[in-house]
Amino acid sequence: MSTHQRLALDPARRRLLASSLILPASLLPGGVGAQEAWPARPVKVVVPFPAGGVVDLVTRAVTDRLTAVFKQPFVVEDRPGANGNIGTEAVARSAPDGYTLLTGSPATVTQPLLSTSTRFKTSDFVGVGLIGAPPNLFVVAPSVPVKTLREFVEYAKARPGQLNVTNPGVGTSNHLGQELFFAGTGLQLNNVRYPGQPQMIPDLASGQVQFGALTAALALPHIREGRLRALAISAPKRWSELPDLPTIGEAGFASAMFLPWYGFLAPAGTPRPIVKRLSDEILAALNTPEVVARLDKMGTQITPGSADEFDALLRSETERWSVLIRERNIRSES
To answer: Which of 57, 34, 17 is closest to 296 using CA atoms?
Structure first.
C-alpha cells in the first residue's frame, strides 16, 4: 500500500496533514496580524545634546536623506542633559523595533566608565552606521608666545600648574582628547569648567585661559579673526579650510590623535534585517554630494562604517578609554 493510500485510510493522519498546511496569519499576504513592513511610521532619532550643536547638525544632514529614501519622516528629537545621559538612557529603554535610534558619540562609551550611577551600558546598544567626526583643534590665546604644539609643550613644562585649560564637560571629546594629550606629554594644566564650548571662547581669546580644544567649525571664525591661534588639528588628515595647519601626528604627537566620532545606534535586540537596511542606506547617503557638502561645511571628516564595523569600534573605544580614565583618575562630576 502506498503512503498516499495509508494516509487516506487513517483519519488521524489526515487531520495532522491538514493542520500542517495551515499558514500562520502573520505569514499570509494581507492576513490578520501580518507583520508591517519597516518603516511603516516615523522613525525618531534622539540627539542627547542641545539643538543647533554639532551633533544635532551632523544628525540632520543624514536624516534628511533617510527621510527621502524611506518615504517616512526621520524625526530628530534633541534631549540634552547630564552629559548626554538623559537622551541616551531614554533610547536604551526604548523598544528594539527600529523606530527609535540614538546619535551616539564617545560619551556613549565613556559615561558608564566615568560614573557608577549611569543608568545605561554601552552594550545596551548596537551599531547601525558610523557617520564621521568633526575634529577638534588645539588652540591657544594670541598672547601665548608659541607658534607650534611642540613649542607649547615646552612653554607649559616650564610653568607647571601655572597655565589653564578649558573643559566644557567631564567626559566630553574635548576633555578626554586633552587628557590623552597630557598623558603622553606629562603636562600639568588647571582644568577650568564651562557649560559648553561657546562659553569658553571669550576666556581663551582674552588669555585668561591659555589652552583648549575646540570643534573645528566653531573655532574657525575666531582663528580667521585673529582671536585664537590654532596649533594642530586632531585628525588623520589636514582640513581644507586651514590647509597649513598640521595634524597632531605631523606636530609630533600621533599617539594623542582622537576623532570624536558620531553615528547612529539602536537598542540592543533590534532586528538585524532592519539594522542592515539602515546601515546600507546610511553608507549610501554618505556618498551623495549634498550630504558630503553639508558635513564638509561643518568640518566633519566623513568616516563611514557599517553596523558591524561600528560594533567593533564600540569595543575598541571601551578598552581605550577604560585605560585612560583609570590611569588619569577621571571621575564624573554628577
So the answer is: 57
